[in-house]
Amino acid sequence: IGENVYLHGVKFSQITDPDLLHFEDDTTVSCHFQAHTFEDRILKKAPLYVRKRATVGGGTMLMYGADVGHDTVVREHSVVMKNEVIPPHCCFVGCPTREIGH
After folding, report:
1. Strand, helix or coil at 32?
2. What is the DSSP code (8-state) at residue 87?
3. 19 — phi, psi (to 5°)?
4. 21 - beta bridge partners?
5. b/e per residue, 26-42, with b = 16+ CB within 10 A?
């Protein structure tokens, strides 16, 4: 966890898999994480990244392998799918996420 990281809100989940969560400096995180799953009886896991100055809204779900780019906003109640890369300087929303602007 970097400097000035704000883990906030009623909608922020408990931390599981702390070794797979990477929050860079100046981020705001108020979401749920799923850094691992069991698919067809196989454990699958990958790190989650929230890059510098990104904001992830309340009720959002980050699946394993998600990478939220720097200076990006993921709006409330969105789902970032497994291994999805959200580019920097954008705004995303939805289930699954889609870009709605810069």
Report:
1. strand
2. P
3. -70, -10
4. 48
5. bbbbbbbbbbeeeeeee
- The pTM of this model reads 0.90
- One digit per residue, pLDDT tens: the chain, 102 residues? 899 998 876 656 567 788 999 999 999 998 888 888 999 999 999 999 999 999 999 889 999 999 999 999 999 999 999 999 999 999 999 999 999 977
Cα three-residue angle 55-18-57, rounded to 5 degrees: 20
SS3 category, 20: helix
Separation of alpha carbons 20 and 86, rounded Å? 18
> What is the pairing mode between strands 98-101 and 91-93?
antiparallel
Q: Quick one: tokens of 62? A: 């980050």
The one-letter amino acid at 84: E
Q: Could you tell me the two tokens for 72?
A: 């990006």
